[in-house]
Amino acid sequence: MPRAFLDDNFLLHSGTAERLFHEVAAHQPIIDYHTHLPPDEVASNKRWENISSLWLGEDHYKWRAMRANGIPESHITGTASPREKFQAWAETVPHTAGNPLFHWTHLELRRCFGIETLLNPDTAESIWHEANERLSEKDFCAHGILNRFQVDTVGTTDDPSDTLSHHEECASLGITTRIYPTFRPDKAVMVERPRMLNSFCDALEKRCDRKILSLPDLLEALRKRHDDFHAAGCRLSDHGMSYCPTEACSEKEASHIFERARTGEAANKDQADEFTAFIMQELGRWNTERNWTMQLHLAPVRNPNSRYFEKLGPDSGFDTIGDWPQGERLLLFLDLLDRSGALPKTILYNLNPRDNALFAAACGSFQEGPTPARIQWGSAWWYNDTLRGMADQIQTLASVGLLSRFVGMLTDSRSFLSYPRHEYFRRLLCNLIATDVENGELPDDRNFLDSLIRNICYENAKAYLAFPHHA
After folding, report:
1. Which helix (H) or strand (E) element contains residue 190?
2. How far is CA 7 from the centre of its chain?
3. Greatest distance between any 2 Cα atoms in the chain
4. Does the N terminus or the C terminus of the chain have fewer Cβ atoms within 10 A?
5. pTM surpassing 0.90?
6. How far apart are the C-alpha atoms of 192 and 190, rounded to whole Å?
7. 104, 135, 166 — which closes off a domain?
8. What range does the domain containing 118 cover?
9. Domains contained in the chain, number
């Protein structure tokens, strides 16, 4: 007889799996160290008028699915009413069977709204009213959601030119969840795109109250913001790249490249790569000095649809998986930083799943005490954030590295409703470990298993990332 959809033992296929999840994993706090949550919405304790503004406003996963389902852009990012957009999503949901969106949607309805009805065109009206009624309740706000899911820590993603006033306000509120910035200086190396670089430098000038005309000016401004971020509790940097640069230019050449870019002259591809490597060495040294963690997100193709990029701009749901060769470049880059004393704790994320074993093995080439798993292969990212993708990441890491030292799941999300994804991961993790126990491949030792699950869900990230309130 088929099991009920999303029952209490969803994804748990043995008594061992049920015990590990319900008695151990489900009770662990959440350290969501890489998100795109807006810090101003936490500071203001954001409330939402309707479920569309909360659920659909910035969710690129849903936007892609709706486009694939033939929904017109007016009902995705356009001028259709919130109710019409919600109906369009309800029309799409039944077609997401097999996609994690189907599970995520119904987990979020259950865990956040207490709604167990399947979302489809016929139920959209009743769910719209029931969800919106729930939104009017006192605890349905940014702080309330973070409390409900036991979110211990949130790492936002912040440009060096961004204000940190919202993080400071969050710190002053005395809320249980700590909100820390993450240093994301990608625009500082865009010498091949002078318009974007110069817009960034102009904003950074205003933030630092100093002119940025030369390379020393840029480095001084970035270092000042690195200092400011550290004072605000930041302990991670984040860098998105197609691939890792392998050779740094000299300081003299970096100066020439930057100064030419400031006048509007674009660097060529080789110059841009060498400039990026030069800047990354500097950032790596600063991170190492302060025991920060460097995150490398590798191989996204940004804005491949030029027509929609011109119409909607970046981050509109059109980015996809790149197929640049990663292995040799990654190893040369890590070695470059390591030789110059600029390789901090590092988490690697690959977007192309063909690179799973490559990334897992590359970590082992640069491990060094006293930090356990100093170089981490991060959680299954973006297009890999599926049951299959997460299972592949967990099992490959267990085979090639130390799963027991893994810092675990993150949402990488812009939505406050994404926290059931941690439950999704934890259920899968418990089932995979339990399967090995049931097969006699791991001991049925309660202390051993409970410690393994607890560490992957919470304790490893707490020790490795070393946020101020965990010190």
Report:
1. none
2. 28
3. 72
4. N
5. yes
6. 5
7. 135
8. 48-135
9. 2
